[in-house]
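Summary of Year 1 activities. Much of the first year was spent building the evaluation harness for sequence design. The harness presents a backbone, in tokenized form, and records the residue chosen at every position. We chose the following record to illustrate the format because it has been used consistently in internal testing since the harness was completed.
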């Protein structure tokens, strides 16, 4: 348990240390506060379906310069409920590299019964993201209870007409949802998606997104559509 908290502290120090170092260069930056809501037909995350039925995904974020901190949630409405309420901190450097730290919470006592089993309801994920034009690289390490760590990496490219992503991971990303076997490192997320805007009226434009996802490791295929609202 102590090692998990040491990992959390180290990740937090990395994020906030880098932020303080570069924040000095942001002599004048406007602070922005954004809220949003996404309605999604099926919640698919890195090749894995979360819950069942349509999902509501609220977001809240405060951004100043390259630094942002926020919260995002997921509530699935089908028979198999899926719940998430996550908080995160990010810093994007001027050369398009971002460092991120996310706390994933999926229900139960938020602070644990007596702080001893807080890792049973939380997982911590440090991540790196690099944007090079329309090409994006992403790598993350999800740290869970009992010192279990699942790696996930993805490369994506925006072709304008659609966006293609290929991701590989281990553990939760490649474990069969039926037989509960597997879990070895493998390609788990091949996705094609498209974001556009639907002209409803002369003054009302509705941002929408749709896509398909194949997880070759678990042999699962998903299609989804989403409507996004944001200020």
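For this record, the design step produced the sequence shown next.
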């Amino acid at each position: 348990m102590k090692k998990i908290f040491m990992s959390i502290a180290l990740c937090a120090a990395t994020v906030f240390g880098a932020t303080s170092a570069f924040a000095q260069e942001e002599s004048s930056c406007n602070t922005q506060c954004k809220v949003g809501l996404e309605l999604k037909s099926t919640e698919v995350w890195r090749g894995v379906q979360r819950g069942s039925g349509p999902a509501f995904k609220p977001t809240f974020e405060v951004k100043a310069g390259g630094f942002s901190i926020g919260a995002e949630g997921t509530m699935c409405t089908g028979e198999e409920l899926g719940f998430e309420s996550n908080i995160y901190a990010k810093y994007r450097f001027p050369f398009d590299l971002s460092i991120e730290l996310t706390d994933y919470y999926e229900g139960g006592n938020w602070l644990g019964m007596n702080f001893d089993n807080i890792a049973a309801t939380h997982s911590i994920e440090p991540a790196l993201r690099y944007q090079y034009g329309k090409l994006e690289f992403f790598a993350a390490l999800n740290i869970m209870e009992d010192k279990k760590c699942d790696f996930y990496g993805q490369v994506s490219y925006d072709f304008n007409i659609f966006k293609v992503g290929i991701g590989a991971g281990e553990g939760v990303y490649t474990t069969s949802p039926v037989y509960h076997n597997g879990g070895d490192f493998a390609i788990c997320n091949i996705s094609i998606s498209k974001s556009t805007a639907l002209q409803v009226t002369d003054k009302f434009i509705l941002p929408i997104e749709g896509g398909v996802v194949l997880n070759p490791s678990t042999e699962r295929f998903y299609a989804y559509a989403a409507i996004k609202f944001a200020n």
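The radius of gyration is 18 Å. Quantitative recovery figures across the full test set are reported in Table 2.
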